[in-house]
Design brief:
The structure holds 2 protein chains of 2 kinds. By secondary structure, chain A is an all-alpha fold. Chain A has one domain: MetI-like fold. In chain A, 85% of the residues lie in helices and 0% in strands. In chain A, helix 5 packs across helix 8 and helix 6 packs antiparallel against helix 8. The longest helix of chain A is centred in the C-terminal third of the chain and has 35 residues. Chain A starts with a helix and ends with a helix. Chain B is of the alpha/beta class. Chain B has 2 domains: 239 residues, P-loop containing nucleotide triphosphate hydrolases (Rossmann fold, 3-Layer(aba) Sandwich), CATH 3.40.50.300; 73 residues, CBS domain Like (Alpha-Beta Complex). Chain B is built from 15 helices and 14 strands. The radius of gyration of chain B is 22 Å and the shape is globular. The two termini of chain B are 33 Å apart. Classes of the chains: A mainly alpha, B alpha/beta. The interface between A and B is medium-sized, with 17 and 26 residues. The structure holds adenosine-5'-diphosphate (ADP) and magnesium ion.
């Protein structure tokens, strides 16, 4: 049985695993972006908080993903919930960091003009800092999402489903084709998502 | 009127005052130039007026009111602010940039929109062509024009300008200076203008405050500064050739001898050496050197000769101010 015959014969399973994968990553990214953007904005108000949060998210990302997911099992059990929690934790760093630096690295002349003209700090945040930080924020979201799609494979290991299931089953059954299908589809989804978000980012840059 | 009373500013951790015991009064409707070498405290002095910097001691009064008692945002909305980097908001169009302060002041949409057109006209930018442009589509000079328009948007009585034309090439800078003076004739704002360029101070100022190490060493009119520098520091700052600079402050129309109709008739024969009323005495001297004559004629806007200016006349004018250096 060649690769394409395999793909066609297992089509319904592959499709449902793909959708499941997309679903997990999508939910995780919605939460991650919401939390990450909020945290990134909040910590611009306090240097101490910023240092702590950036260090914590940094550490989170250095934990091997497999270990992070395994550590969540005793707390949250297995299934989609720990998978989503793990993905959220794992993808915080690029989002929080980019939101934070985007907001903090606005040209000082622009901020001085805004203050001198009589805009309040709140207004400056809303009408100057955040709009100008959007391209940087988007770049963080893009990195995080592509990471999330890849790491989402490991969710299969803790019973959350998704294309990771095919990879792990393929390994235990020594089926190269299953591993390849899982890996290739994850790559394709990553590339397409990256392209799409890159387009959005370029639009924001103008 | 803006008044500084014994204002001191010392930045935290510094051994000396950035601004030391400054007393200064700026008349309404005039341009006061703060001039001096880099680091002498010009920007610090200016930014204390709109509370971007708080004085360590002393008081600043605007129209008799201590600015400490005025709400900071309210105060800033009533003061136009222009900086060298323009600080235009890059994500907003020219129109949106100009609309910021009127928006904060709660103006109606229609009023803001017509204000944008009015201001773009004032700074000589075609409203149709420029309203919807983004700042990065503009040249340096055009950006500064928009900066001026934005600062004027809320019709503030006071304008603070920190080396606004400092980053422009000499030709554009001279044009912006001329146009700004033309605008000021119409709008009569109280302007505090920071520059390190003495030529600019002499050209633009009604009064000039020369600063050195955070203190005013001379406060007087441009002519007085040129003819009577208070100390060697000021003389050195002016950098010599004072007589020529004084000539650049005199307008032909002001110092010419008016001619009778008969004399005008006589002058008609000599087409050489004619200048407008607004030309400076420096232009007149240059024209005399070019033509090799000891006089030039002065004409009005309709190109009718109305007066004459001769070399003895220039000599006397300069000497009357008693050059001391
Ligand atoms: N934020 C600051 N902290 C400490 N020193 C400052 C600060 N801003 C300006 N200074 C110092 O105060 C002096 C006056 O600065 P400034 O008003 O910017 O001068 P100018 O505008 O005439 O070049 C300089 O010696 C400068 O180094
Ligand atoms: Mg300065």
């Amino acid at each position: 049985m060649n690769f394409f015959e395999f793909l066609i014969s297992r089509w319904p399973t592959i499709l449902s695993l793909t959708l499941e994968h997309l679903f997990i990553v999508f939910i995780a990214m919605v939460i991650s972006v919401t939390v990450g953007v909020a945290v990134g904005i909040l910590i611009t108000k306090n240097q101490m908080a910023a240092r702590i949060v950036l260090n914590v998210t940094n550490i989170l990302m250095t934990i091997p993903s497999l270990a992070l997911f395994s550590l969540l099992i005793p707390v949250l059990g297995i299934g989609k919930i720990p998978a989503i929690v793990g993905l959220v934790a794992y993808t915080q760093l690029p989002i929080v960091r980019n939101v934070y630096t985007g907001i903090m690295t606005i040209n000082p002349a622009i901020l001085e003009a805004a203050r001198g003209m009589g805009l309040t700090e709140k207004k400056i945040m809303r009408t100057i800092r955040i709009p100008l930080a959007l391209p940087a924020m988007m770049s963080g979201i893009r990195t995080a999402t592509v990471m999330g799609i890849g790491i989402g494979a490991i969710a299969g290991y803790i019973g959350a489903g998704g294309l990771g299931v095919y990879i792990f089953q393929g390994i235990s059954r020594s089926s190269d084709q299953m591993v390849i299908v899982g890996a290739v589809l994850i790559s394709v989804i990553s590339i397409l998502t990256d392209q799409f978000l890159g387009g959005v980012q370029r639009k924001l840059n103008r | 009127m803006i008044r500084f009373e014994n204002v001191v500013k010392r930045y935290p951790g510094e051994a000396t005052d950035a601004v030391h015991n400054l007393n200064l009064e700026i008349e309404s409707g005039t341009i006061c130039m703060l001039v001096g070498p880099s680091g002498c405290g010009k920007t610090t002095t200016m930014k204390m007026i709109n509370k971007l910097i708080r004085p360590s001691s002393g008081a600043i009064l605007i129209g008799g009111r201590n600015i400490d008692t005025v709400d900071t945002i309210e105060l800033r909305l009533s003061i136009g602010y222009i900086i060298q980097d323009t600080g235009l908001f890059p994500h907003m169009t020219v129109g949106e940039n100009i609309a910021v302060v009127p928006g904060e002041l709660g103006w109606k949409k229609d009023r803001i929109s017509s204000r944008i057109d009015e201001l773009l006209d004032l700074v000589d930018l075609n409203p149709k062509a420029f309203r919807n442009k983004k700042p990065n589509e503009l040249s340096g000079g055009q950006k500064q024009r928009v900066g001026v328009a934005r600062a004027l948007a809320g019709d503030p009585p006071i304008m603070l300008m920190d080396e606004p034309f400092g980053a422009l090439d000499p030709i554009t800078r001279a044009r912006m200076q001329d146009e700004f003076l033309r605008i000021q004739e119409k709008i009569r704002k109280t302007i505090v203008f920071v520059t390190h360029d003495v030529e600019e101070a002499i050209k633009m100022g009604d009064t000039i405050a020369v600063l050195k190490l955070g203190q005013i060493v001379q406060l007087s009119s441009p002519m007085e500064i040129l003819s009577n520098p208070s100390d060697p520091f000021v003389s050195e700052l002016i950098g010599g050739r004072n007589s020529l600079k004084m000539l650049s402050l005199m307008r032909c129309g002001q110092i010419m001898k008016t001619l009778s109709p008969a004399e005008v008739e006589e002058a008609r024969g000599s087409p050489q050496g004619i200048l407008g009323m607004k030309a400076t005495a420096q232009d007149a001297l240059s024209e005399m050197l070019r033509t090799g004559e000891r006089f030039i004629f002065v004409e009005d806007e309709r190109h009718d000769v109305v007066g004459v200016l001769d070399f003895e006349n220039l000599l006397e004018r300069v000497n009357r101010h008693g050059i001391t250096s």
